[in-house]
Amino acid sequence: MGEIIDGKKVSEELLGEIKLKVEAAEVKYGKKPALTVILVGDNPASKVYVGSKEKKALEIGFNSTVVRLSAETTAEELSAKIKELNENDSVDAILLQLPLPKGLNGDEFVGKISPEKDVDGFHPQNLGKLMTNTNPSAVACTPLGVIKLLEKYDVEVEGKNCVVVGRSNIVGKPLAQLLLNLNGTVIMAHSKTKNLPEVTRQADILISAVGRKNLITKDMVKQGAVVVDVGILKDENGKLFGDVDFENVKEVASLITPVPGGVGPMTIACLMSNTLDLFLKRQEARAGAAGAAK
Ligand code: NDP
Q: Residue 199's pLDDT band (boundaries 50, 70, 90)?
């Protein structure tokens, strides 16, 4: 029977560490990290996500601001707002909540955020640095959360067969790249993959990021594999579940994440961790520039 990876516990530990670092930073620099989230329109799920990000940011001692723009916001207005936040010295991290309303292209506007303030790591410059393994300002929060969980449970990636099911720009692709950077042997599977069970059975580390109930069944998992379920779905009663047939797969996995309580809480903790990192990098850059000017 596989051990359950407790993402809630790991995320709470991480948030506790961040809180202490924020207190220390406040003493050292006389200020707190500042996260600004831009929410455009009235998407109900986005409103909930933004609300929980704001709450968590305030809880751990950040300055947290939500810029709420109407669904009728024009491309020019959104560009001007992002430019203003890029130039605002008191903002350390900017998150543009996606999806944007019809007519506004998310990728285009993410590309307008200053890479040094791009807390989601979605700016092309940060994605390029992830690909070349050359220190991006930030790495996408969900993939980063998965890696932190693997680290916490002493899962060695180097030399392992890693199968990532799902190839979105926000989860599958950055996650596959992180695993490759850790010297895993990575296969990416997607909706056009032929014979998915044959592919997933090769995995020492199997990660599913699709959003389809019971996509990953017991017969698709090698005995002893580590199984990470990124998928989040809701049934008609509001109960959450993931891509993996958890009850049966846990009989063959050595380690497995539940849904809820697995990857989900790590995503928000990594958003906070990225905000702190961006703040510290900006403070250090400023101290370096002041030192050089002396
Ligand atoms: P997308 O819809 O953008 O991507 C889904 C991916 O799954 C695509 O690459 C698609 O392939 C692939 N896919 C679809 N059907 C199949 C199939 N039958 N077999 C194999 N692959 C398939 O989703 P996201 O990446 O944004 O999110 C994935 C899941 O993760 C969702 O459930 C989402 O709610 C959840 N999520 C969870 C987070 C968390 O914090 N835990 C954060 C972000 C997302 P193709 O490219 O060929 O279309």
A: very high
State residue 102 phi and psi, 5-degree precision.
Answer: -50, 140
Helix and strand element counts for the chain (H, E): 10, 11
Backbone angles phi, psi at 288, to 5 degrees: -65, -45
Q: Which residue has the tokens 């998310």?
A: 106
Task: Determine the residue of 56, 171, 214, 240 to mutate for testing ligand 1's pocket, defined as the one with the most ligand atoms within 8 A of the Cβ atom.
Answer: 171
Active-site hit among 6, 92, 118, 120: 120
> What's the pLDDT at 112?
98
263 lines ligand 1 (CB under 6 A): yes
Per-residue pLDDT of 231-286, as tens digits, reads 999 989 989 999 999 999 999 999 999 999 999 999 999 999 999 999 999 999 98
| CB-ligand 1 contact for 230 (6 Å cutoff) | yes
For residue 171, give the nearest of 277, 251, 98, 247 by alpha carbon: 98
Going 133 to 135 to 140 to 143, the CA torsion angle's sign is: positive
Kindly give the residue spans of alpha helices, DSSP state H, lying in the chain. Answer: 7-29, 44-59, 75-87, 106-110, 124-132, 141-152, 172-181, 196-200, 246-249, 263-293
Residue 216 DSSP one-character state: B
**pTM of this structure:** 0.97
DSSP summary character for residue 66: E
255 forms beta bridges with: 3, 226
pLDDT of residue 239: 92
Helix axes 172-181 and 141-152, enclosed angle (nearest 10):
40
